[in-house]
């Protein structure tokens, strides 16, 4: 259905003539393919057409939505794709294809046997998120294809959203298929800079052809970068390559291409990111099968890119859990490894508006030499801590190293019987097909026992917090506990956080920070973190005199899930300002790199009437960013006002705006 007053998008663009009417044989074959795709969870998109064009020449179809377009083309039997935003190139003509285990290349010499197209619009309500509702509005084109040499049937499915584009492959024959490589390329325009990071390294802005060579003896080697991968283009456009709906398939990396300085090529991981476990050079799947989506989130401005991140969720399967009432996002405080520390942590959580406490690595013994996570160390009386926490309305998370997950179902069932609310899995080995499946199985098993799950270390998002919303967070980033630069911190909203939620361990009040305390405070609004670890290195006693810590009321008040989010200003690696609404209150966070700056932010997002703004700002810069004080002030504002947000070097500002 088209919304009232909304511009109707063209139904389909085709070249090389109109497809001819389908013969009965083609229609019947198409019906069988449709049934197989439905069994694989791949919905039909509209009327089918047969397209049996002669060899040679060029055919193309384009999906369009709100100024964004993605084009599939066939040139002398070879598949290609491209993407544009407002008539400007985002991805130039690029390759498509899969290499199978027997060497067959799907995409090098094919013919189109059928086409589907359609426009889809729905809204859905996430269990938690950046916004209370999400609009899923796209135009889709789908080609059914046949490899001329082998007769293998496959397809390519593309979607255009206002927020970006996406593509994936469909293996249509029933049975099994073995995928050895994905041949998708991303040809960026001249002058593009990409922000490359592998594992938990810092982001490095480089040309597409200059991705650093990385890897160790037991890992994938080469000029490879992890996703999400952000690219800044000439003219102000910005794009972020992500993946969504990765199931039974290895994780995608991108690599520089020799002789093609502006192009990145798909690389399917053969080793886990940490190099443990079996090497998997191919992936065998049951067909019909859909590969993960390759999404390109696009922004006309850097700020718009951040607001368009829900594209990744729209491409993921809907919520699979019949009951989500037990899923509660929240803030978390890590306790030291003793009973007394756990009890004190509960009291601190109550006082500071925190929903959970956590026992991290070591609560059941040294994590790399203790594969049994069923008995706490003698210093922790876990039943007493859980009982006290429950009586105060505070939940408990437990950390578990992957070495203790040999029987996750039994372990998670045991934790449920103890009264645990969440688990944090450590040193996860994402990367291969089998590890993708293992990660999803852990999320499913945790959901079975009504446990939240936070996956840590080198794991990357693929939209499955929509499908299993108990999978509430993951790391996959150079974490804040490593005290990165302010530049790194203001890169993340445009890169890693586009792909999904990010566990970033806010380190307010730490002398090792390379940022001001106001910068650390602002992270709670700037980053999307439905599970937000606060005061990471601290004990409750540090904050025994709240007057010494003027930022504490901000952390007491700031939520972790939102009704509405708006990015007000931003430039990757330089600055960011985000406003998020919960109920009638807005929470605004702004951060800058190592340069001081003032942002003039119109407050037009506010409702009618007056608001009281409580501003937590940088004071006079100290001898180091950490020593810059937080200065608190209040003022009355309306939607007609502009807020001048002044930030010290490596600084920030946090603002609460409540109706007066």
UniProtKB/TrEMBL annotation:
Alphabetically ordered keywords of this record: Hydrolase
Domain Glycosyl-hydrolase 97 C-terminal oligomerisation residue range list: 561-658
Database matches in PROSITE patterns: TAT (PS51318)
A molecular-function term among this protein's GO annotations: carbohydrate binding
Stretches assigned to the Glycosyl-hydrolase 97 N-terminal domain: 70-318
Organism: Streptomyces coeruleorubidus
Region (Disordered): 1-23
Pfam families: GH97_C, GH97_N, Glyco_hydro_97
Protein known as: Glycoside hydrolase family 97
Domain Glycosyl-hydrolase 97 catalytic: 344-477
Keyword Transferase: no
Biased composition (Basic and acidic residues): 1-10
The UniProt record lists the keyword Cell inner membrane: no
